[in-house]
Amino acid sequence: MPQTKILLDESEIPTHWYNVVADMPNPPSAPLSPDGKPVGPDALAAIFPMSIIEQEVSSERWIPIPEPVREIFRLYRPSPLFRAHRLEAALGTPAKIYYKYEGVSPAGSHKVNTSIPQAYYNKEAGIKRIATETGAGQWGSSMALAGQMFGLEVRVYMVRVSYDQKPFRRSMMQTWGAQVFASPSMETQTGRDALAKDSENQGSLGMAISEAVEEAASRADTNYALGSVLNHVLLHQTIIGLEAKKQFAKVGDYPDMIFAPCGGGSNFGGVAFPFFADKAGGKNVRLVAVEPTSCPTLTKGVYAYDYGDTAGLTPIMKMYTLGHDFMPPGIHAGGLRYHGDSPLVSQLYHEGLIEAVSVAQLATFEAGVMFARAEGIIPAPESNHAIRACMDEALCCKESGEPKTLFFNLSGHGHFDMAAYDKYLAGQLDDFYYPEEAIKASLSNLPKVG
Amino acid sequence: MPQTKILLDESEIPTHWYNVVADMPNPPSAPLSPDGKPVGPDALAAIFPMSIIEQEVSSERWIPIPEPVREIFRLYRPSPLFRAHRLEAALGTPAKIYYKYEGVSPAGSHKVNTSIPQAYYNKEAGIKRIATETGAGQWGSSMALAGQMFGLEVRVYMVRVSYDQKPFRRSMMQTWGAQVFASPSMETQTGRDALAKDSENQGSLGMAISEAVEEAASRADTNYALGSVLNHVLLHQTIIGLEAKKQFAKVGDYPDMIFAPCGGGSNFGGVAFPFFADKAGGKNVRLVAVEPTSCPTLTKGVYAYDYGDTAGLTPIMKMYTLGHDFMPPGIHAGGLRYHGDSPLVSQLYHEGLIEAVSVAQLATFEAGVMFARAEGIIPAPESNHAIRACMDEALCCKESGEPKTLFFNLSGHGHFDMAAYDKYLAGQLDDFYYPEEAIKASLSNLPKVG
User: Running DSSP on this structure, what letter comes out for residue A347?
Assistant: First the structure.
């Protein structure tokens, strides 16, 4: 009987993260102030500990994972690599399909891979509290868990509409001891001003970021934490790809193509970058970022300097963007509704070293349901994007007869997304295609510098 | 650094289930018709396949697990055995605490361990459809998953109040391809009669069982499946304890005490029976069934013949019971709200070979939150009962200084129970103690035979 799960012992948890900067043909573009001047490490020190700022600008290939972080990782890592025998049979494809399952983390997704080291470094720096934002709650719950593990107070600004409509992610954060505020809140000046103007304000991710950053910047005992986009976040996520390489080696296989969902880029970077190291060394492996047609940053955006947030409070970064005030349609893969993308992912894409495709919402749920019926696990809507693209390639293999080895990142489970599946099964889910006019409008509003 | 997870390779999935009947000092009491005559295998053949009926009455010590069942088990088994280092530290106990985590199954609990073989044996017998009932949805979703794996149609009668209030378990079943009906439904005569009397009928587990059994009994292509209580269900669950024994052997340890939640008995029997084999051979290991104070079947019930269902449609079985028309208070551990108990568990308890304790609802949630903050995983409310009893023993060890080895079954995760955690954290959860008057009343209503 063929092997289904390729496991590693916890002694095989990687000891170092992989920094893709070391193998990029060109150095990464630096973040700038809106006035065009470089942003130095000092400017970030108000909200991040120095050890994280050092990782953000490092070009060292290998960065050690602190032992206390590896110890917490043992609660759920190494994550299993699955061979999708039943999905292959259901598709009738000669392709071999593998997936790495990150839903084994207590918070249910890969986000915990970075919240744990971020909590550790802040604790080491003497920080007592972390302020952060969350939309649907995946990042907030990951940060709540990590804060609890290292004895940090965690304060989560949760977009009000999610706070009201998705109470279970909120309960999860509270179970792990975090304080959760509906944003806009009375906790910050930004929030109070917004509520003074409109007491029924439903909030937005941009507003929640502003509240968390305000709190972190105004208190010496408090720092800020971010769940994607930045270099150090992608660095922490490379543990996924590093483990996967060990697992492929155990079964004597290696992927021809790798698929991962791509919103802010940490999901994709986490699984793909360690394989990019091989590609840079001449190995033939295709790395495919998968994004929604409704928010097609890489496939339809421009490569330009833009703000990381909607309100224009952050430094500007060179990245693919749809314009910082682009508001993506309300698809259920909330983690992929981001106007920009990781600068590292963007640069590699701009230089033709990685690929990107976009897929429509209904097709992703169709793929997710087919996957669940074959393999059991119900995937997060974000993960369904990678499954869709991988299944499409497996069906091409069926046409061509090529027995390619395909690999995707199953970044999380869908236990807190059943309302979306419910709508899909009831035929009430919509497709959103390329919102051309809205993107044109927001792209006319890029910062003039850079 | 001490080991956290003790893993087995999928080649180490047990090849046989363990049948406790072979090691019981006395043969099990047979089920009877209400008229006092023994119920033969033929009477069950209308709703169960013969291979399952044979398991129900077998006294063979080892029963082989069919290879196609082991193949599906590879999607999530063997489940990990954890050493709870962080919980031990939080309690300051010298005890060693281990837990087996069954929440890794795609449906999120141990119930899948029996739904998969039940689906397999029905498929082998030429059955096309399974009819079953579900309360909160844990069993229904496990059966939906298993049916999908073997190409069986699954029809789930879901208590209407849960169908309306807990839509996400319903969506889960539908994602796996099952049809779900709010019970009472228009699908059966029982349901139509109930709705004719009261179109707003909110349903009950007894009603849902009646509908499922009616459908199974009236169609040759359809069988019934049950998620606990019966001997074959406990047999299938012994895979938990059998794996745990291999895992303890790997680290050279062995439990002094084992704790498991006990409602219908399959959770407890699954983890405890394989250790009972050692106990019968002279080994000193204490097996503790943990039940809610609100439904204290073993600790406050009587050992007598009673119906398995509320409506009095099933054969009568000798078991601990609170009376078949006892209606337990609405605690959040829905899986433990059962008036009776497994006849095998009951007989072992009656003979003084296993122990039982009862714990109150608030104390179980307190334990669950403490566990989640130490170990990450948010447990199902049922599992919190075992955690509470195990923690209490660990605290006794702290008093006495005894370094006992304690082991409990973490039978499922709480991702679909966050509303209960929410109420607990908001101080809105109630305790229910021994409902003496209600139990007295229902015990006066036991069948006169047996």
Answer: H
Residue A41, phi-psi category: left (phi > 0), alpha (psi -120 to 50), beta (remainder): alpha
* Beta strand spans in B366-437 (E): 405-410
* Number of folded domains that form chain A: 1
| Start-to-end Cα distance in chain B | 57
Task: List residues bridging with A17 in a β-sheet.
Answer: A63
In a domain, B44, yes or no: no
Asked if residue A109 lies in contact with residue A142, where contact means CB atoms within 8 angstroms, the answer is yes
Which amino acid does the sequence have at B209? I
Judged by DSSP in three states, B81 sits in: strand
Q: Locate the chain B residue with the closest alpha carbon to A90.
A: B149
What are the backbone angles phi and psi of residue B180, rounded to the nearest 5°? -120, 130
Q: Inform me whether the C-beta atom of residue B9 falls under 8 Å from chain A C-beta atoms.
A: yes
Contact: A171, B71; criterion CB under 8 Å: no
Q: Beta partners for A96?
A: A405
pLDDT per residue of chain B (450 residues) written in tens, 0 to 9: 579 999 999 999 999 999 999 999 999 998 999 888 988 878 889 999 999 999 999 999 999 999 999 999 999 999 999 999 999 999 999 999 999 999 999 999 999 999 999 999 999 999 999 999 998 899 999 999 999 999 999 999 999 988 988 889 999 999 999 999 999 999 999 999 999 999 998 888 888 988 999 999 999 999 999 999 999 999 999 999 999 999 999 999 999 999 999 999 999 999 999 999 999 999 999 999 999 999 999 999 999 999 988 778 789 999 999 999 888 888 888 889 889 999 999 999 999 999 999 999 999 999 999 999 999 999 999 999 999 999 999 999 999 999 999 999 999 999 999 999 999 999 999 888 778 898 999 999 899 875
Per-residue H/E/C for B2-23:
CCCEECCCHHHCCCEEECHHHH
CB spacing of B167 vs A377 below 8 angstroms: no
**Quick one: DSSP state of residue A307?**
E
Nearest to B86 by CA among A359, A176, A137: A176
Residue A241 in domain? yes
Report the CATH number that the domain containing residue B418 is assigned in CATH: 3.40.50.1100
Q: Is residue A58 part of a domain?
A: no
Is residue B114 situated within a structural domain? Answer: no
How far is residue B194's CA from residue B192's CA, in Å, rounded to a whole number? 5
How far is residue B107's CA from residue B136's CA, in Å, rounded to a whole number?
A: 13
- The DSSP-derived string for B394-405 is HHHHHHHT---E
Is A260 in a helix, a strand, or coil? Answer: strand
DSSP type of residue B106:
T
Which of A3, A5, A365 is the best residue to mutate to test the B interface, defined by the most B CB atoms within 10 Å of its own CB? A5
B200 touches chain A (CB under 8 A): no
Q: Is B118 exposed, middle or buried (0-12, 13-18, 19+ CB in 10 A)?
A: buried
User: Could you tell me if B243 and B79 are in contact, meaning their C-beta atoms sit under 8 angstroms apart?
Assistant: yes
Dmax over CA atoms of chain A, in Å, equals: 65
- B63 phi and psi angles, rounded to 5 deg: -125, 125
Q: Write out chain A residues lying below 8 Å of B379, CB-based.
A: none
Tell me, yes or no, if the pTM score tops 0.95. Answer: yes
Enclosing domain of residue A261: 5-9+67-108+232-443
CB contact under 8 A, A168 and B419: yes
Report the C-alpha gap between B212 and A405 in whole angstroms: 44
CA nearest neighbour of B84 among B101, B106, B102, B104: B101
